[in-house]
What does this fold into?
Amino acid sequence: MADVSVLDVLLYDEPIGTLTRVSGDRTLFAFNDAYVADENRPILGLSFKDRLDALITDFRPTQTNVMPFFSNLLPEGRMRTYLAERAGVNPAREFFLLWVLGLDLAGAITIKPADGEAWPPDTGEGVGDQDEDHRENALRFSLAGVQLKFSAIEEAKGGLTIPAKGIGGSWIVKLPSREFDGIPENEYAMMTLARMIGIDVPAIRLIDIQALRNLPKGIDTLKGQALAIERFDRLSDGSAVHIEDFAQVFDIYPDAKYKRASARNIAHVIGAEGGEADIAEFIRRLTFNTLIGNADMHLKNWSLIYPDRRTAALAPAYDFVSTIPYMADRTAALNFSRTKRFDEFSEDELSHLAAKALLPEKLVLDIARETVERFHQTWRAEAANLPLSRNIIETIEAHLKTIPIA
It folds into this structure.
């Protein structure tokens, strides 16, 4: 069994560091000297900067897990278990999950074995039990999250096909849930409404599963519609734009995505890193998701993007779903400022958030009021035209009556 394995970490296809696994299943991350010395280096993530904006270069080793920034690039829950089984990897051993899935991660990061070491590595029991074909099968579903989703390439005739090795897709395709009916249609409707009221939403469309080409065996038996979303971390020429979610920003593991920070904390970072346009967009999205009853806007559902490789901005919107028709949850995933109760989302709560996050109170309140007004106008005009069941429409309308700001 190999005592040491090394993965190269690349940003925009340039090596910037290494993840090294040593005996005892410990992993160490280190930046390359050239990246440290480069004063114009592209940003990997805000958590790698200290309070003086200097690069942090000293990291503690981790056991079994990789450090939080890289852990957040990996799938979670059932999705992780499914992919790990397909690749013959123990789902708890994140170093080897990155080995399997590192060629098509979110943002501009790629991770691959140093010196071209072949898969499966000589790692001992429970890892590498499958061959390269199984690894490539897993790679086709490499994006982080809990829902079964994968990269897809748009064909000349407008259809979508799944790459054989899961690399290079410019769309994300999200398959229907086996637990809840109509999730793709719900998300399509909520994202469409969001765009109509002025929120920055990537291109989306519903597509019949039978129209997707090259689905893996077993998945192609699903029926219904999938949601296709254009990847905002990929440009038209196929090059990558770097992004990071707020679990990465706050340097916490995915299992703490509901616990360790609030919307107010996110707002503070956006206010410090961006301008008034980003602040307005954040408040617009926070208000909108409260109005639709999205109880699952956790830290990983907010992201920053680096269009110029160094300056952070709020990334386009994603994962807008009205969850209350499926679970009678009356609280948001994160505290707004003092509370997470939907029925306490008021102008006073927003004023408190603005004060604590050092945001302009007038801007925050003006944008929230404007969002409420636009939402009501758009909902009245469009709700019946969207692919929503009567139950979802009635649940949202009953929910709106409980929100003070609405």
In short: The two ends are 62 Å apart (CA to CA). The longest helix spans residues 361-382.
